[in-house]
Description:
Layout: H1 3-24, H2 27-30, H3 33-56, H4 67-81, H5 86-103
Amino acid sequence: xxxxxxxxxxxxxxxxxxxxxxxxxxxxxxxxxxxxxxxxxxxxxxxxxxxxxxxxxxxxxxxxxxxxxxxxxxxxxxxxxxxxxxxxxxxxxxxxxxxxxxxx
Length: 104
């Protein structure tokens, strides 16, 4: 068995165990205010980190400002501030980035 298949099986087992952990966790643990606050804030922090990496790190993985990506991000943020639906936010950001790349 190659190393790739071992990695795939290990990842599948890890995902299964993570799901199982959520199912067997006692209700009293889930009702703890600290756990509730943690589960509210961690997804936001992870999504913010992913957006920052994708917006600021081009293909060669060096940290630099990429104009079209930042313009797309700014357009998406503006659409969010205007309370646009999520699909509109995605299309706005993509259109701004693609339009700027076309001009440059």
